[in-house]
Amino acid sequence: MARLFLLCCSLLLFVQCGTTQSLVTRKTAKGKALKAYEKGMSLLISEQNEKAINEFEKALKANPKFIDAQIQWAAAKYDQKKYQEAEAGFEKVLQIKEDYKTKVYYTLALTEWRLNKFDEATAHFEKFLSLPKANEKLKKQAAFHLANCKFAAYAYDNPVPFKPQSLGNKVNTSNAEYLPSFTADGKTLIYTVRIRGQEDFYISQNVDGEWQEGKELTEVNTDLNEGAQTVSADGKLIVFTACNRDEGMGSCDLYFSEVKNGRWTKPQNIGLPINSNKWESQPSLSSDGNQLFFASNRAGGRGGNDIWMSERNDKGLWSKPVNLGKEINTGKEDQSPFIHQDGQTLYFMSKGHPGMGQHDLYYSRKEADGKWGTPVNLGYPINTKASEGALVISLDGQTAYFASDRKTFGDADDSTLFDSERGGETDLYSFPLYKEARPQPVTYVKAKVFDAISKKPIAASLDFMDLSTGKAHVSSKTESDGEFLVTLPMKKNYSLNVSKEKYFFHSENFSLAEVADVNKPFILEIFLQPIPPSVPGATVPTTTATIAVEPIILRNVFFETGSAALQDISINELDRLKDLLIKNPTLRIQLNGHTDNVGSDSDNMTLSENRAKAVNDYLTNAGISASRLRYKGFGETIPIDTNDTPEGRQRNRRTEFVRF
Fold this sequence. Notes:
Strands 2, 3, 4, 5 and 6 form a five-stranded antiparallel beta sheet that branches. It contains ten helices and 35 strands. By secondary structure, the protein is of the alpha+beta class. The radius of gyration is 34 Å and the shape is elongated. Mean pLDDT is 89; it is low at 1-21, 409-423 and 535-548. The termini are far apart. The relative contact order is 0.06.
């Protein structure tokens, strides 16, 4: 049935609210005017708009004050997207009789909104809302449109930077490419490709700033469709959407596949409690892989699709999903979440927050109390009157990625070509994200763990801790390849402990509280030293000849400035050393203290010895036998870095231990 531009209730139901001497309505019309009007209404129902308009014009020619014919003429012009003519038509209705039907103000305002006449649209929405006889349900819609109208007026007057660039013809082909996702280092792209109706995953590597030809992810793809995926920071876990599968729980479910021994595992349904008998899709993993955001129309939401979140515990089990609440979700569609690796900034699309009119893109930042802040519209021309799709943001926060089937952005009368590298119906693009919309800066640690003797990769446990809170940041285990990648939000300090049974642990410190350069990630090779077996009563291990034991630096033991007083943030590392000694009861160690070259030689010697003694005393107070410990200060005599820079001096100020 043709749309009569009825919107919320039919304009056919307009009734006479009063008469003037010359006013004619569908109830009082006669003769040629009534006959033409009725024929026009019949033609509208049979979707013959142009012929219907001709009939309404005949009715108006017979009687220019035939107000119902004028309303339907304007509505038909709106339906044809001839908004200027529709606007003039609705204004003529008001000239005939201003208070004939309150809804005319609503439809006129929508028409003016289409024409970007935001001031006039605002005035007419406000007029409609002020009328006591206006339909209450329609008033709610008008209030929503009014908020959109005011936002659009501001957005058009204050456009944000937006210059999309194609990801290149090695990724974008004659097929449809969409839904990009990236590893934290920005080197691997996984995206969805639709070929003859079949959706599959493809993977591309970035080499010297250029995306290489996409290859099918054959180990994950099936004969059915796969899409709407998220990839873990290290690229070893993918969570994606699959619909209508035999083992499915609802219309669409979330599935996962992991890299084990260098290969992707067979995809599995993620199961309860994340999946339900409803629609679950559009997942997004947090940087540590322990929070999963997704969209669902499951029971308990606020209406339509909402954004939900589930957390994974230390046993690998997912919690019952929680709705992100009224700060994010509305009574309309809210979906396509992307949680940035900073863990504080959520990007999503919504039809329910003030915007340009359809699905717009927003971001929200997590506040100090853990609640999500008021969403911010990304602005025009990133958002337009069309529906915008999902957005993902690079680790450094400076680049946004999205898919589009448009060759232009903005309005038809103010458009700019994306670029000349379009491939198919939908392609992948990137653009520099303006500063105000960027997430908090994040860097990453990419490392590989080796056996210090064999130089072969080994599996190990790793624990990152936020030193400012004393809470775990990431706890995980590597595969047998010894590789790991962990993201670290800036403006904090972190400790890392890498451990394995029968090996000395290795620690690192990442002081990022005042560092803002996200372009220098930490690339490490970590060599764990095996703990040689000891002969009881011997002063030297029998394997000394084959194992060259290097000092183990306690990089997360800190003292007050110029003092031997231990800082509280040292406790975690000291307790790890205590546990190492408990697990290896024949192990005896010497604690060595070192300083930089600031101050006199004698003062530095004394300070270094006192600091080594402070660690010694902590261990004995914790129950370690004094006979297994000794300590020595070396002052500034054994530097491991230059003393010409603050960073070098900091590395030289250290506490370490060796076996004796």
